[in-house]
Amino acid sequence: MNEMTTISRQQRAYSPAAAAFLARKPQLFINNEWVDSSHDAVIEVEDPSSGKIVGHVVDASDKDVDRAVAAARAAFDDGRWSGLPPMVRDRTMNRLADLLEANAALFAELEAIDNGKPMTMAGAVDIPGAISQLRFMAGWASKISGETTQPYTMPGGQVFSYTVREPVGVCAQIVPWNFPLLMASLKIAPALAAGCTLVLKPAEQTSLTALKLADLVVEAGFPAGVINIITGNGHTAGDRMVKHPDVDKVAFTGSTEIGKLINRNATASMKRVTLELGGKSPVVVMPDVDVAQAAPGAAGAIFFNSGQVCVAGSRLFAHKSVFDQVLEGMAATAPFWSPRPSLDPEAHMGPLVSKEQHERVMGYIEAGKRDGASVVMGGDVPSSDGGYYVNPTILADVNPQMSVVREEIFGPVVVAQRFEDLDEVARMANDTCFGLGAGIWTKDVAVMHKLAARIKSGTVWGNCHAMIDTALPFGGYKESGLGREQGRQGVEAYLETKTVIIQL
Ligand code: NAI
Ligand code: MG
Fold this sequence. Notes:
By secondary structure, the chain is of the alpha/beta class. Helix content is 38%, strand content 20%. The chain has 17 helices and 20 strands. The protein has helices at 16-22, 62-77, 86-102, 104-115, 119-140, 180-194, 208-220, 234-243, 256-267, 291-303, 323-331, 334-337, 355-370, 403-406, 422-429, 445-454, 487-492; strands spanning 28-30, 33-35, 42-47, 52-58, 152-154, 157-167, 170-174, 197-201, 227-229, 249-253, 272-276, 282-285, 315-319, 374-377, 393-396, 413-419, 437-441, 459-462, 481-482, 495-503. Strands 14-15-16-13-12-17-18 form a 7-stranded mixed beta sheet, sandwiched between helices. A 6-stranded mixed beta sheet has the order 9-8-7-10-11-19, sandwiched between helices. The protein binds 1,4-dihydronicotinamide adenine dinucleotide and magnesium ion.
């Protein structure tokens, strides 16, 4: 493996616009206004590329949460958003998308500072992805409709009946730190299209881009109270949102552990719930592949976003005839993925998001070594001037009992296993409590379709990985979640169906 000590891991200077944003007073966005918290508690904003504290955001109190929910409740109940002509909702959402686009460079920089992902990646993936969610869902605002059944006659008279799709109401939306703005837009776009109002809480590690988005809400023309954005901790502010009696629906992306807890808390009062949770996605490499294409593909499947991706291809299954070549090909990509500070234009992979995540990932790597796994590549941290860097890591000689094989690591760590035939790999791929994504690499169309049918996961990719299309549903089988986001199903998750039967 190449020696990478020549890379400077010193974070670069922030732009004046980003520095000014970080210097702002911590406040919450409620009812189209920036307001102070009811108390003084704040959360530190850390740059994971340096480990330095670079700002503060509010740690919302129960009173703050109640105030945001009350604003969303009032805005929903008087129909100031759901009652607008659908094309006005469409245009307002598109204006928000336009403003996001006009400020894309600042959003990408803030995301890089806050999360540690390369600014170039944020600019190429996160920000355009967020814009697409808004634009795609904006179109649904005018395409939501019910059904009319054939009129018929009963002894009491003629019967006329129809269904109406109504917005579900006030939504509590809680998102994680791996794709902060993209996850926020995945939540707010379908809710807005459906006519709902919302309170959004970004993750405590990454609040900056959600707050910057709030800056654009008034200019886009949203009525007060439709979009409320509060920052705070999960077990306090998040918990309050989930249990709040004036909330009708909870939408969450994050860990399976917290997803299960939120599901219990929300359904206690029969709130509607959608959950997008963890994964341990298989990447299957069949013997017929072009290794020169499949190996970098398998590397990208796990190392993109430092492996902090719900669909990360964290379990590699390569046919025994190509296993060694695939691992060699993946190891050859190490210099490309060598972690660098997020504002370094050469960076393809940044640090992990936090000290906590760094400890978690290194803990898994150590556990894997103790359990007898061998390190094919990485397994260590590079030299750096602070920050939470982990080298891209491949572990082999693993077995299905090891924690590195069973649990979501959420770091740049892949476990590699051999297989002999299709039956065996289908069984191995499904030997997990998760079912979010799966990648299959083969030129054989029949094998592709047979395996796609057998793998239990919400999405299957063929000769690619982690491709997302706003028009296509996304979500999990098994413990990877509940419901679907994106596409028609994405907006339907924010609608109730009312049946009206009238005897004329
Ligand atoms: P987490 O699931 O605790 O946090 C995600 C969001 O949930 C944050 O906004 C947090 O404030 C909120 N939250 C936490 N506890 C809550 C509660 N009791 N009620 C309401 N909201 C609550 O994830 P965490 O602790 O940051 O990461 C732990 C692990 O979770 C990671 O190592 C990774 O395996 C997994 N994860 C998976 C993600 C995915 O996209 N599937 C995203 C983030 C983490
Ligand atoms: Mg947590």
